[in-house]
Amino acid sequence: MAAAGAAGTIAVAEALHWRASRRHLDLRQGRPRGGAQAVIVLGFPSGRDGEPHPLQRWRTEIAVRSLAPGEDGRLVFTGGGPPGAPTEAEAMATYAREVLGVPAERIRLETAASTTWENIAFAQPFVESARTVAIASDPLHAARGRRYLLRQRPDLAARMVPADDYHLGDHVWLKVATTVYELARPVLRRMRAHLEARAQ
User: Fold this and answer.
1) Are 52 and 60 spatial neighbours (Cβ–Cβ below 8 Å)?
2) Which residue numbers in the chain have pLDDT < 50?
3) Which of 60, 33, 55, 59 is nearest to 162 (CA)?
4) Do residues 107 and 74 touch, judged by C-beta distance below 8 A?
5) Is the distance from CB of 96 to CB of 75 less than 8 angstroms?
C-alpha cells in the first residue's frame, strides 16, 4: 500500500510538472533549438550553513542547460537575502561558476528581489535586449514566473521560449515537494490574508 501510494504521488507530481513546463508558452511552432539568449533564474533561500539548497542547485542546472551556447548568452540570477549573508543570486551564481563551469562574463546578478513577482520585475533590465528569454526554476514555479512576466511586460513575454526544465525521473522528491507547495500556496495565502485582516 505504501509503495503504491508513493508511486501514485510521484506520478501525479511528474504529470503536473510536465504540464507546467508547457504553460504560458506559445508552442505552436515547436520547441526552439539552441536555448535562450537570456535566462532568468528565480531565487530560493540558501541552506543555514550557507551552502546552496538542493532547489537552488536544481534551478541553476536547469538554467545552464537552457542557455544558448553563443558568447552573448547570459544567466540572470535573481534573489536577495538577509544582511551579511550571500544573496540567493550570489549563491546560485557561485554554484554555476565553480561547479558547472559557467564563465563569469556570462552571469548577471540581481540581488534585491524577495518574492517571485520581484524576481521577474527586477530582472527585466538585464534582458531588455535579448532576442529570446527563458525562465528557469522547477517547472511549477517557472510557470508562475512566466505568468507574472505576461502580466508585467507582455511585449517581453512575447520573446519567451521554453527552459529545459522537465526531465522524466529527474529530482523526483523535489518535484513532490514543489507540487505540495504550489497546491497549498493559494490556501496559505488566504489564511495569511485572513489573519492579517483580523489583526487590524
Assistant:
1) yes
2) none
3) 33
4) yes
5) yes
Amino acid at 38: A
pLDDT in tens, 186-197: 777 777 766 767
Determine phi and psi for 127, rounding to 5 degrees: -120, 10
**First and final C-alpha spacing in the chain:** 47
Rounded-to-integer distance, Cα 200 and Cα 195, Å:
9
CA distance 39 to 16: 22
Inter-residue contact 116 to 185 (CB < 8 Å): no
For the stretch 160-174, what's the b/e string if a residue is b when 16 or more beta carbons lie within 10 angstroms of its beta carbon? bbbbbbbeeeebeeb
pTM surpassing 0.70? yes
Q: 104 CB contacts (<8 Å, ≥6 apart)?
A: 97
CA distances from 12 to 142, 151, 155, 172 (A): 18, 28, 34, 11
Backbone angles phi, psi at 41, to 5 degrees: -105, 115
Q: Which helix (H) or strand (E) holds 197?
A: helix 172-199
Grid cell 552571469 in the structure block, residue: 107
Please tell me the CATH superfamily of domain 12-199, with its number: HUPs (3.40.50.620)
pLDDT tens, position by position, 149-170:
999 999 999 999 999 999 999 9
**Domain residue ranges in the chain:** 12-199
> Parallel, antiparallel, or unpaired: how do β-strands 38-41 and 133-136 relate?
parallel
**Hey, what's the cell of 160?**
519567451
